[in-house]
Amino acid sequence: MDHLAERYLRPRKIPGTACSGCGLGQVHKKILLAVEQSGIGTDDLVWGTGIGCSGRQTFNTWKGDNFAGTHGRVYAMAVGLRAALPEEKKILLTVGDGDAFGIGLSHLLHCARRNVGMTVIVADNFGYQSTGGQYGYTTPQGFVTDSSPYGTHEPGWLQGGADILDILKSAGATFLARYSSFEGQKAVAGIKKALDNKGFSLVHCIYPCVTHFGAVGLNSRDNGEIVRWFEELFSAKNRSGRGPHLTSGITHDARGTRPEFAAALKARTREIREGRHVPACSNPYLKNSQGGAEGRHVQA
Amino acid sequence: MIMPDGRYRIDVDFEACKACGYCALICPAKIFERGADLNKKGYSPYRPANPDACTGCLRCFYMCPDFCLEVTETARKAKDGGKTA
Q: Is residue B42 within 8 angstroms of chain A, CB to CB?
């Protein structure tokens, strides 16, 4: 076990049950490096996990407080936690591509809209690999998977002119970045900035699945072959035409430009309690149409 | 595993290694090689066969997905050949 695992992870969970060659541990390690370099302790951060490979492998590994969400709903649970926890406590979620960009996309977009203070790390292995390798929302078009024996027939969130990060940006996210799990300190620096943001941050980390996506989609379980394909995805020259063209790095950094959800909610509640709030329009159902402490339903 | 003559010490956790081979793939100095012994999980883990060639680039550390590889800088390569490490 390395020093990161000894310091931050529960020994009974390491080594995990991931397949040999699974890149999820690379993402996990980059998060821990960012945590270490930010000076965050196990008491300073609550770790939530989704469902799938990413949730299974990171669940309950964190020595501090942690929780597991139902599929795609971990964001909604984190909103509640955000409202309940003190501002300085960080919330980090490790989820998969199916959880974030499909099943839980609506929750995710609403978290971005409200700029809820949380850091979402989407560990993307191009499909539903823990259930046998069915295609998902980022599976490149034309790739053979367990559920698309003739190749996927539609573009995912990374092709056909769409980019899920653009959608999250439009929704109001204040920090967005994308890396491959093979990157080093560059990815760690991005995750550090995401953790630093007092608002909604999302880091999209693409990692290899050798057992399903590699073996079926790329026709190879060879790490060298898979690393080459990943390099191609992020290369400006690309290429073989296999897969989307991606850019690594921070795609959107608007830290500090929007009020954070819980802080704004608490300030608003305080204003109403103290009768200082000014409504956008008067409320006929409140006696005191300016709102305020005496405001209550009008009795007939 | 202490390598007193090198500047960096490389530890591979024999039981935790799943023999994925990313370390050997990425290492520019070709330090790692696959061992012959099997661990309890049935993998034959990689080992640092030539650790003196390590330059401390940490690529293997960033690549290892199973938290089983550690690169530690021992003492700076001193005039005494690192015997103080």
A: no
